[in-house]
């Protein structure tokens, strides 16, 4: 999918948040921005949504796009609160730059699948109440309290490539378990 302008999908409500679903079940979808500016002269990267959370319906790669636009009048980046891979392969490519507070291989519901997070782009440096905050990456899902929700049944793989860095990478979920193996690969920058 090549974006030729900002999309600005407003999403729908789930668990009290405005969410958007990306990808197509059974397919691998790549989202990227056109290299051509719009008729108004706006150049990419273009943004996909103006919601707080995203859920993947299939394998997805993001290249040179913004996931969210800020709520200000200016065309600036906003932060995605949570990105849920829902057991799929999710790649943030080298030329991707968009702040995401939390990235999960799983979901807020139970998932059967093999989450694979490939992070080579810049998903860090987001703002929380005027202060810089660090992105957290979880191989599993999320639940606000210890329960059976957010569990991943399958093997989790997290690849942190040389163009990304994180303060916090967890193989498991946030109050959510993993039934399978967990592999975290850290690629060093070349000397």
Question: Would you kindly provide a written description of the structure presented here, covering whatever features stand out?
Answer:
It is a single chain. With 191 residues, the chain is mainly beta. 0% of the residues lie in helices and 42% in strands. Strands 1-4-7-10-13-18-21 form a seven-stranded parallel β-sheet, with no helix packed on it. A seven-stranded mixed β-sheet has the order 2-3-6-9-11-16-19, with no helix packed on it. The termini are far apart. The mean pLDDT is 82.
Question: How would you summarize the topology of this molecule?
Answer:
Elements: E1 2-3, E2 12-14, E3 17-22, E4 28-33, E5 46-49, E6 53-56, E7 59-63, E8 65-68, E9 80-84, E10 89-92, E11 100-104, E12 111-112, E13 116-119, E14 126-128, E15 131-133, E16 136-138, E17 152-153, E18 156-160, E19 168-170, E20 178-179, E21 182-186
Parallel strand pairs: 1-4, 3-6, 4-7, 5-8, 6-9, 7-10, 9-11, 10-13, 11-16, 12-17, 13-18, 16-19, 17-20, 18-21
Antiparallel strand pairs: 2-3, 14-15
Rg, Å, rounded? 16 Å
Please count the helical segments: 0
Write down the overall mean pLDDT. Answer: 82
Percent of sequence in beta strands: 35-45%
Structural class: mainly beta
Largest sheet, in brief, is:
7 strands, parallel
Q: Which stretches are low in confidence, meaning pLDDT under 50 for 5 or more residues running?
A: none
SSE order, as H and E?
EEEEEEEEEEEEEEEEEEEEE
Helix coverage percent of residues?
under 10%
Distance between the termini: 35 Å
Number of strands: 21
Strand order of the largest sheet: 1-4-7-10-13-18-21
**Overall form:** globular
């Amino acid at each position: 999918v090549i974006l030729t302008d900002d999309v600005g999908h407003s999403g729908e409500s789930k668990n009290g948040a405005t969410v958007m679903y990306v990808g197509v079940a059974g397919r691998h979808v790549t989202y990227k921005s056109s290299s051509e500016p719009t008729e108004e002269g706006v150049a990419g990267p273009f943004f996909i949504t103006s919601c707080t959370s995203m859920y993947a319906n299939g394998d997805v790669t993001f290249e040179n796009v913004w996931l969210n636009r800020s709520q200000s009048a200016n065309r600036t980046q906003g932060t995605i609160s949570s990105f849920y891979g829902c057991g799929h392969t999710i790649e943030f490519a080298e030329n991707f730059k968009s702040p995401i507070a939390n990235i999960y291989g799983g979901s807020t519901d139970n998932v059967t699948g093999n989450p694979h997070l490939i992070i080579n782009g810049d998903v860090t440096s987001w703002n929380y109440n005027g202060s810089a905050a660090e992105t957290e990456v979880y191989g599993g899902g999320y639940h606000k309290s210890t329960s059976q929700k957010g569990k991943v049944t399958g093997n989790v793989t997290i690849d942190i490539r040389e163009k990304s860095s994180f303060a916090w990478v967890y193989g498991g979920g946030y109050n959510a378990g993993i039934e399978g193996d967990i592999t975290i690969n850290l690629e060093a920058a070349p000397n």
